[in-house]
Please model this.
Amino acid sequence: MDQELHFGFRLFSTDRAARQGEITTAHGIVRTPAFMPVGTQGALKGVHWQEVREAGADIVLANTYHLMLRPGAERIAELGGLHRFINWPHPILTDSGGFQVMSLADLRKVDESGVTFRSHLDGAVVELSPECAIEIQALLGSDIAMQLDECLALPADPAEVERAMRLSLRWAERCKRAFGSAPAGRALFGIVQGGDRRELRVESARALAGMEFDGYAIGGLAVGEPQDVMLATIEEVVPHLPAERPHYLMGVGTPDDILAAVARGIDMFDCVLPTRNGRHGLAFTRFGPINLKNARHANDARPLDADSRCPAARDYSRAYLHHLMKANEMLGAMLLSVVNLFYYQDLMQGIRAAIAAGNLVDFSGMIREAWARGDIAPL
Amino acid sequence: MDQELHFGFRLFSTDRAARQGEITTAHGIVRTPAFMPVGTQGALKGVHWQEVREAGADIVLANTYHLMLRPGAERIAELGGLHRFINWPHPILTDSGGFQVMSLADLRKVDESGVTFRSHLDGAVVELSPECAIEIQALLGSDIAMQLDECLALPADPAEVERAMRLSLRWAERCKRAFGSAPAGRALFGIVQGGDRRELRVESARALAGMEFDGYAIGGLAVGEPQDVMLATIEEVVPHLPAERPHYLMGVGTPDDILAAVARGIDMFDCVLPTRNGRHGLAFTRFGPINLKNARHANDARPLDADSRCPAARDYSRAYLHHLMKANEMLGAMLLSVVNLFYYQDLMQGIRAAIAAGNLVDFSGMIREAWARGDIAPL
Model:
């Protein structure tokens, strides 16, 4: 770890609203636009850490909610912090735990002080306040910490959306105060809330910008709403975020979501899709998604993509991958998860190069046309 | 694939009854004594093929029973054979399918012609004759094929043991005839049966030796009997096997079983223990087996073995491995399976070196003493 590196963000190129740059952290550089694979419990499902790196990931996301419950933030701190614990010496972003509390925990009670919930593991009652969320993330030692917020599923009652947004703003202030003058290289991001209500989103973005966070996330999207609602919200919010800070769209998304959001000024993404879909037999490829469970692959000797940078996409036939999925062999999930991680990182690399060259629109058009042409028919 | 390599076996050193040498096949060299990891359905559970190779495996075992039912031997042949299908260009041994028929299939009926059973996958009625077992293994293209035999669980009725042994001998002859003059580099092994009855084991070994197989396996052991019964049987059988051919103990075993069997003249082993135990949280180490699920590892920052050749044994703390097992993360099973594959292959390498140096007794003693001393206590 290089303690001399401080958190920072530099923009190298822009192409319309799209931006290409890099984030510096104490654990290294993050090229943006960046996709962060998700290691929920301190591991990506079915993937070795060196494969995550070989795929091209500069940064990964870990879930504070899961890690605080098991093995515990204090334990990870005693073991030298999360980077050492999981043996990933590169940048790590942790969420605040708020999102998983809302989606996984039972008996949650949200009030001004924070959220009280029962652990989904053992039913223990746990309290999570803004100050506590910051302390836990400090114990984990993540490079980028997130404020505690309240995230609602959409559609939601408008009054509820407003209440949750304002509560999240007050929690943002408390998180900022608790974070204080951060240790060298660590950063804290605020999270824009406000559901699908434009005026609330703008108010949230402006208020957070006034608090001078190190970066700004858009939360509460990709929670069930149509893509056009998500994109319209991004278009409303981004102009109100400080341009000199990274913009992070939480929990997104499909390759198409990423192309569309980058074009609207988003710099960072995280999503479980590469590994989750890989486990279920779905490969992301230049030819669009390919479902390896489909019987049409049973006799197909072709690799997924002979020109891929990913060994797993080149070295195994579709017939073998189909067999592994049908036989429920772990190796099928493992290979397809790696294929998908490479695909996502190669997509990000293509996006960065396209922005630098000023041709993101053409690049995105070509990518989408190739998806639309679909898989090449078997011989 | 080097078609000029023919199957062969050379002995380089002996140390009392122990032997060190190498098998040549069309797909490369197998150093003996050899441990063959098991890729039941054409994959090791939780392990990438390059990890199997990096661990030091020269040869793997694949199960004919599973592959004939799914994806089917004809399909694998159409796809270029098993080596290409699984992308393992090195030697492969296939069993005959008989053992799994006995242990997995329903409604099996054994008669002179062969065995009829219902697939455990879809209930389809399948017939497996000696000739059919040879044909299927030829379609798979394995380097070493096994005769069809009837394997009983022990203890078994003595008359049943004798009947099954004699039937297996008649099937051995039919397999030999069906195998004919094998394609260059392919080999067929006979299987000694006879349960725990010495005179039947000797009769079986002598009769098979008279048929001039390329190698000789001892089957029907490690099926529930005590270790001393297994070792006594090996001691009875080995002197009756041709010394100039490899001796293979099927389905064995623990590291201790392997040390004991090598000392009695066994050259080849296969077992699912490295991956099965790894999936269940058990690591084989120089300090004996370590159960990572045990709570005593929760705060242990030490790696499994800082001096191991295996990255997974060096790069992750016991605390992290414990966490992965408790959290049911695939990565825990993956890392411990690799640790165990390295351990087994390093044990075989140590055994080979010890035989060459003429000090297998001392080597085995040192290994067992280190196991007995156990794990080093946490600081």
Remarks:
- The mean pLDDT of chain A is 95.
- The two ends of chain A are 51 Å apart (CA to CA).
- The first helix of chain A runs from residue 49 to 55.
